[in-house]
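Supplementary Methods, section 5.1.

A reviewer requested that the exact input to the structure prediction be made available. We therefore reproduce it here, unchanged from the version used in the analyses.
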Amino acid sequence: MSEVPGDRKYSREHEWVRLQDDGLVMIGLTDHAQEALGELVYVEQAEDGATLAKGDACIVVESVKAASDVYAPIGGVLAEVNDALTDEPELVNQSPYEEGWLVRIEPSDPVELDELMDADAYSQFLAESAG
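The structure derived from this sequence is encoded token-by-token as follows.
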């Protein structure tokens, strides 16, 4: 069973978001997503300062299985990318909820956070998807 921390929200596309104390939102791939992708070998990040609408492709992750777009679960301005992933893309596999985060954005509409699933709803979504 995939790990689903209770301190963040989740999208149907298997991204997690966590509002941080500085008002920025950290985004990453869920444990379920990294398991499905397999070992990551490359992460192509967007540029800092890019404006993203909810649903925009903002990152490409390449694994031994395939290349996949990662879509912004909320809109905003890209404030920071996780530069460590350039040299160590496997951090997404090893620590998807901590060291393997993807980007931090300044949300344009914080209400979009409320549209995402909490941990219980995401766990239920995973269970229904598996059945």
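Residues 47 and 130 are 35 Å apart (CA to CA). These observations are discussed further in the main text.
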